[in-house]
Amino acid sequence: MTDLQLRTVALTHEENTEVDDLLRTLADVPVDSTVALLHRTRLAAQELPLRIRTELTGMRLYDSPRALVVTGFGIDDDRIGPTPVTRPAPAPERTRNQELLLLLHAALLGEAFGWATQQNGRLVHDVLPIPGEETEQMGSSSKAELLWHTEDAFHPLRCDYVGLLCLRNHQRAVTTLGWPDLSRLTPEDRATLLEPRYLIRPDTSHTPEQNAADAQSAERFAAIAEMDDTPEHVAVLFGDPEDPYLRIDPAYMSPAPGDAAARRAYDTITTLIEDALQYVALEAGSLLLVDNYQAVHGRKPFVAAYDGRDRWLKRVNITRDLRRSRSARQSATSLLV
Ligand SMILES: O=C(O)CCC(=O)C(=O)O
Ligand SMILES: [Fe+2]
Questions:
Q1: Ligand 1 nearest atom to the CA of residue 288, by list position
Q2: Is 149 labeled as ligand-binding?
Q3: If the chain, 337 residues long, is cut into consecutive pieces of 10 residues, what is the mean pLDDT of each piece?
Q4: Which of 193, 294, 323, 325 is most buried, by CB atoms within 10 Å?
Q5: Is 250 domain-assigned?
Q6: Ligand 1 atom 3: the closest Cα is on which residue?
């Protein structure tokens, strides 16, 4: 069955050449975490191939599709170098074109932003397996399934969209994508899910242990620790009750203790998501954009080899409105929440 909520677009050779030409015009741009970088990429994004601009502008305006895959970007496998086994990646310059590519697409959906408490405050993240983290609920796991989730579900300022660009995936590890058919919920369960009857906690990527010491701000980590100690009560569904958005991460979320109706509704919606889960094995040069208000994503297990050839993705968080997070950012031009 074709699902109109998951679209795939294959770039033509000509379009790919246009993208390469555009990247060459950005050769002088430092790939850092500054608003100057967003300024350049936002202007340049207006010169991406028309078909890409049409797809992404549509995704933003129509709230559909919920996920878009663009295949066929060229990746120079020698140039990007071996898949690192540490973060931060030792030679970020080698993947500047891939980071720029993600930022160009982010600019058509909104603004890229980062977290002071995640991946050392970098704007573009590395998603790769890390020794010792095989069974964690983080992007760096491998042996264990990364259970499907809303990205940073715990945080009120979580992204509107998450972008993932695949640099390498010889293991053909599968990304999961899903959304529930809400017409199958009873009115009672729907009403329950629209109420703040669920506890949510931060995931382990936002801890000092997961970030280099020189990138740490004690205050920001304290705020995250507070969210762990005193978890917020949130709703799973929000927005228009007739056509709500979704916020769910079973690994870090639970119905309020003793709330049987909340538990029942939760079990039902998780089953609805499970039942309709879709599977996409991203290939080198495939870009996945997920609407984080309307779809969950995760990753099936795979075996990491730590031989420099492991699966490697780049990730970016995208907000539709930077002002929403202004009070959580140090200045109007800082991109770190
Ligand atoms: O590895 C994947 O395919 C998805 C990882 C993920 O959930 C993430 O990086 O946010
Ligand atoms: Fe994720």
A1: 3
A2: yes
A3: 86 98 97 96 98 98 98 98 91 96 98 94 96 94 97 98 98 98 98 98 88 75 89 97 98 98 98 97 98 98 98 98 97 96
A4: 193
A5: no
A6: 175
Domain membership of residue 295 (yes or no) is yes
ipTM of the complex in this document: 0.98
> Which ligand lies nearest the alpha carbon of 172?
1
Residue 18 resides in a domain: yes
Mean pLDDT of the chain: 96
Q: By alpha-carbon position, which residue is closest to atom 9 of ligand 1?
A: 139
* C-alpha–C-alpha distance, residues 203 and 103, integer Å: 24
Is 297 a known ligand-binding residue? yes
Closest to 206 in 3D by CA, of 136, 135, 284, 152: 152
Main-chain dihedrals φ then ψ at residue 108, nearest 5 degrees: -85, -15
Inside any domain, residue 153: yes
Number of domains in the chain: 1
Q: Domain limits at 109? A: 6-181+276-328
CATH number at residue 157: 3.60.130.10
Answer whether 0.95 is exceeded by the pTM: yes
